[in-house]
Amino acid sequence: MNQKKNCLLLFCVLSLVQSDSTTEKITSDQIIMPDDEIQDKLQNNECTVLSGTQEIVGICVPIKRCEVLFKLLEQVERRPDIKTFLLSLRCNRNKGTRICCPYSSVKAAKLKISDNFPNFLSPPDCGNTSITESRIIGGEFAERGAWPWLAALGYRTFENTHTSWMCGGTIITQQHVLTAAHCIKPKHTEYILHKVKLGAYDLTNNLDGIEITIDKAIIHPNYTFSTSSNDIGIIKLSRPINFNSNIQPICLPKNTRMQSETYVGHHPYVSGWGAINFDTGKKSLANQMQAQIPVVDNNFCNNVYIRHGRKIRNDQICAYDEKSQKDTCQGDSGGPLMLSIENTYYVIGIVSFGYKCGEPGYPGVYTRVTSYLNWISTMIT
């Protein structure tokens, strides 16, 4: 039944194209040509349609004359929401199958297709950095402000009130930080998570960045320490953050395409203040480190870790650079695996575990953020 329904939807959408045998030249800046728009207005071809909660006003034309909507046809097979969106824009069926194309002053970015997570931030309100990607690639040390969503998690013990910065996290809203469950509930139970540092580059400088206490810290209800399954948690800060150039939120991968992506072959980034050398435990607290690491296939990763009694799950991502042996180390736990898409950064993974640090043949393992979007949405509401 579902297959028939999908086929019917696809047939209807494709008919939007097939009904028009003419081809017009479309510019990159305009959805329809200005002269055509004037002519259509004279012919009373203006239209208003309701798509979801959006009222779209435009010109009723064959879809080939609407660049922004015509481009969406490329994604129709894998995006059911786009099928529904395009079908909702049909107009003036007496003249054949046409679509209500927004006026040329409306850009593609302003068309909102279905949003299953309206409480998540969307570009341009997230994922922005002042440092260009060309200045990040290949750098061992990050530039100040390169990763404005990075958070350092501070711990103390009952006996010692001195703060130790032992985990990382990622700002996702004005009051929430995403991290790993094992950072909230550490193996060494004498350590208590009590504050978060934001906007800092040098953790040895008490005046660098701001510190905010924690209202509550929540771990995933199905987190298991022994297997690192569901290794995800959310920290709610005691007060909202005032964003500035050094403190910004990252975007969550909420669109349908990102949710279905394996990310194998992509080259995301990691950054933090973690240990540089596993054996010595030497840390780089005075310098924010960064690396670009390719995502590898989960089957390869599973074959490596199964020898150690760890099974890699679909809700995990593995990344490993065989040539440079770059990796994240202890202390970077809970930090983000970040992917740049059109100069906007998304958190696709959370540093979970690995074998030593940059050990040949051993990928780093990350919690796959797209597998937990519903849970995140519930926790930040």
TrEMBL record:
<dbReference type="GO" id="GO:0006508">
    <property type="term" value="P:proteolysis"/>
</dbReference>
<keyword id="KW-0732">Signal</keyword>
<dbReference type="InterPro" id="IPR001254">
    <property type="entry name" value="Trypsin_dom"/>
</dbReference>
<protein>
    <recommendedName>
        <fullName>CLIP domain-containing serine protease</fullName>
        <ecNumber>3.4.21.-</ecNumber>
    </recommendedName>
</protein>
<keyword id="KW-0645">Protease</keyword>
<dbReference type="InterPro" id="IPR033116">
    <property type="entry name" value="TRYPSIN_SER"/>
</dbReference>
<dbReference type="Pfam" id="PF00089">
    <property type="entry name" value="Trypsin"/>
</dbReference>
<keyword id="KW-1015">Disulfide bond</keyword>
<dbReference type="Pfam" id="PF12032">
    <property type="entry name" value="CLIP"/>
</dbReference>
<dbReference type="InterPro" id="IPR001314">
    <property type="entry name" value="Peptidase_S1A"/>
</dbReference>
<feature type="signal peptide">
    <location>
        <begin position="1"/>
        <end position="19"/>
    </location>
</feature>
<dbReference type="GO" id="GO:0004252">
    <property type="term" value="F:serine-type endopeptidase activity"/>
</dbReference>
<keyword id="KW-0720">Serine protease</keyword>
<dbReference type="InterPro" id="IPR038565">
    <property type="entry name" value="CLIP_sf"/>
</dbReference>
<keyword id="KW-0964">Secreted</keyword>
<comment type="similarity">
    <text>Belongs to the peptidase S1 family. CLIP subfamily.</text>
</comment>
<dbReference type="InterPro" id="IPR009003">
    <property type="entry name" value="Peptidase_S1_PA"/>
</dbReference>
<dbReference type="InterPro" id="IPR022700">
    <property type="entry name" value="CLIP"/>
</dbReference>
<dbReference type="InterPro" id="IPR018114">
    <property type="entry name" value="TRYPSIN_HIS"/>
</dbReference>
<dbReference type="InterPro" id="IPR043504">
    <property type="entry name" value="Peptidase_S1_PA_chymotrypsin"/>
</dbReference>
<feature type="domain" description="Peptidase S1">
    <location>
        <begin position="136"/>
        <end position="381"/>
    </location>
</feature>
<keyword id="KW-0378">Hydrolase</keyword>
<dbReference type="GO" id="GO:0005576">
    <property type="term" value="C:extracellular region"/>
</dbReference>
